[in-house]
């Protein structure tokens, strides 16, 4: 089916932009002290993989020694706060320096890409013609991971999808070194007055701590399964000016669990990978259904909604995601979904309908207007035959259906009950997830019972 372009749509393929040299538009900002260096100097500290050949770090402080015997004292003075660990210090410096970059992030991304391509010419083929946006996304996820090197559980949770996305992009384990050198080179250029030897040292340390497990995971995953599957679009239906329902038939089954998302690449936007959540639980015929909302100014979602046609060939990356219902808990379940965030929620409910003992589950599906509640009819149909499932639609503007709750999702959820004993899954925009998680935390739901995959990086 052909589709008319969206208002203000860009061309089907972005025009090539000059990027193979550091962007000529880069201007030194007022904070910057270091002279501009067009050729990357290697970082002052080598990228050392901890635990392999790492020598003791002089910044780590003295080696532990036997504690001196304290003289007896009636009231010992309060112990001074323990100094931050090197990991905590590195994570803090990563956050602080990244905040300093602020509005210059696009220029930094261009600079980073130029350095990366000069260090590793093969990496050029992994990026589309216009490199700023994918380079910015790559840097953001990398820096986010680096800012958690002091929290191993968070780091592991961030690295897993990152590695999968890198594999879909085609990035190999051997290329991480060049990635790190380009990142540090770009930070040296854009880090401003706060960027000094200590900052550089901390960034190298954080990158090494994050890149080590990433390389290991990439190598392990590389042997396990191919990164990609090809697929054909067999259905494309516009159900609103900014919303499309797509059916995609993979050439071979793509292993995934209900609630997970896949990264996809479409021919109209080569090498711009985006996450999409299948709407149904995995089907025997492997067919995938996606609901795509065109976001304002979005490169890929607009093309998916407006320019996709049946017969298009897509590439699919491996599945990932934190939404799921493990067998280890028998608590009741609360699912809260906004707009197209209903996709993984419907998939999970369909999956639970196949269980012998499904867990009691309440779904709140919210949107601004009734048309946003795309999967409502299917959830209601399921609830009619599955007594463990209750569905509550929520609409901010003008709810026509008397059963629809008015207001925003967090308000409606908190007003409707006590969820402190539930496992909670949240799916939708980052803003909706943040607001709902905050409201539930205030209401007594423990943080470790709230799982979510925000629908944007
Ligand atoms: C785990 C996960 C699952 C997802 N599942 C789906 C899905 O099933 N269906 C679907 O339509 N999308 C889904 N997304 C969102 C999708 O991957 C893209 O991020 C989204 O389509 C925007 O891509 P774009 O290239 O058009 O926008 P970009 O060019 O990347 O961004 C353009 C602008 O839009 C903003 N933006 C990006 N994403 C969103 C968003 N979701 N809401 C509001 N503003 C946004 C950006 O900050 C930026 O300002 C999912 C995302 C994640 C992380």
From TrEMBL:
Region (Disordered): 1-96
Boundaries of every Globin domain copy: 84-219
Keywords, sorted A to Z: 2Fe-2S, Iron, Iron-sulfur, Metal-binding, NAD, NADP
Pfam families on file: FAD_binding_6, Globin, NAD_binding_1
Stored Gene3D superfamilies: Globins (1.10.490.10), Nucleotide-binding domain of ferredoxin-NADP reductase (FNR) module (3.40.50.80), Translation factors (2.40.30.10)
Sequence ranges of Pro residues compositional bias: 13-27, 69-86
Cofactor(s) this protein requires: heme b; FAD
EC numbers for this chain: 1.14.12.17
InterPro entries membership: Cbr1-like_FAD-bd_dom, FAD-bd_FR_type, FNR_nucleotide-bd, Globin, Globin-like_sf, Globin/Proto, MRET, OxRdtase_FAD/NAD-bd
Domain FAD-binding FR-type: 226-334
Catalysed conversion reaction: 2 nitric oxide + NADH + 2 O2 = 2 nitrate + NAD(+) + H(+); 2 nitric oxide + NADPH + 2 O2 = 2 nitrate + NADP(+) + H(+)
Family: In the C-terminal section; belongs to the flavoprotein pyridine nucleotide cytochrome reductase family.
Designated name of the protein: nitric oxide dioxygenase
Source organism per UniProt: Actinomycetospora chibensis
């Amino acid at each position: 089916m052909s589709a008319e372009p969206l208002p203000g749509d860009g061309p089907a393929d972005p025009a090539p932009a000059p990027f193979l040299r550091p962007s000529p538009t880069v201007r030194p900002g007022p904070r910057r002290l270091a002279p501009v260096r067009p050729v990357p100097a290697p970082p002052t500290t080598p990228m050392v993989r901890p635990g392999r050949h790492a020598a003791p770090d002089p910044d780590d402080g003295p080696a532990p020694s036997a504690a001196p015997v304290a003289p007896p004292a009636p009231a010992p003075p309060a112990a001074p706060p323990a100094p931050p660990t090197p990991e905590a210090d590195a994570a803090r410096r990563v956050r602080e320096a990244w905040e300093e970059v602020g509005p210059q992030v696009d220029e930094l991304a261009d600079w980073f890409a130029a350095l990366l391509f000069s260090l590793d010419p093969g990496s050029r083929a992994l990026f589309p013609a216009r490199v700023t946006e994918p380079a910015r996304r790559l840097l953001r996820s990398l820096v986010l991971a680096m800012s958690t090197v002091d929290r191993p559980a968070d780091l592991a949770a961030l690295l897993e999808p990152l590695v999968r996305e890198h594999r879909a992009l085609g990035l190999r384990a051997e290329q991480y070194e060049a990635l790190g050198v380009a990142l540090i080179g770009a930070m040296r250029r854009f880090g401003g007055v706060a960027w000094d030897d200590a900052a550089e040292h901390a960034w190298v340390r954080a990158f090494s701590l994050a890149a080590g497990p990433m390389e290991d995971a990439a190598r392990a995953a590389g042997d396990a399964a191919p990164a990609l599957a090809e697929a054909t679009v067999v259905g494309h239906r516009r159900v609103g000016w900014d919303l499309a329902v797509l059916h995609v038939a993979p050439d071979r089954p793509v292993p995934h669990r209900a609630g997970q998302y896949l990264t996809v690449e479409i021919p109209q936007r080569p090498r711009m990978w985006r996450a999409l959540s299948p709407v149904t639980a995995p089907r025997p015929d492997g067919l995938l259904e996606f609901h795509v909302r065109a976001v304002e100014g979005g490169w890929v979602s607009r093309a998916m909604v407006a320019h996709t046609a049946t017969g298009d060939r897509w590439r699919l990356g491996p599945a990932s995601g934190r939404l799921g219902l493990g067998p280890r808990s028998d608590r009741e379940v609360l699912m809260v979904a906004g707009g197209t965030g209903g996709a993984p929620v419907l998939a999970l409910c369909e999956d639970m309908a196949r269980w012998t003992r499904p867990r009691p589950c309440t779904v709140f599906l919210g949107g601004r207007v009734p048309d946003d509640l795309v999967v409502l009819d299917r959830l209601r149909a399921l609830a009619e035959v599955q007594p463990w499932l209750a569905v509550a639609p929520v609409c901010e503007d003008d709810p026509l259906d008397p059963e629809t709750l008015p207001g925003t999702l967090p308000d409606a959820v908190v007003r409707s009950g006590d969820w402190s004993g539930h496992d909670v899954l949240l799916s939708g925009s980052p803003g909706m997830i943040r607001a709902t998680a905050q409201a539930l935390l205030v209401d007594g739901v423990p943080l470790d019972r709230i799982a979510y995959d925000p629908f944007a990086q």
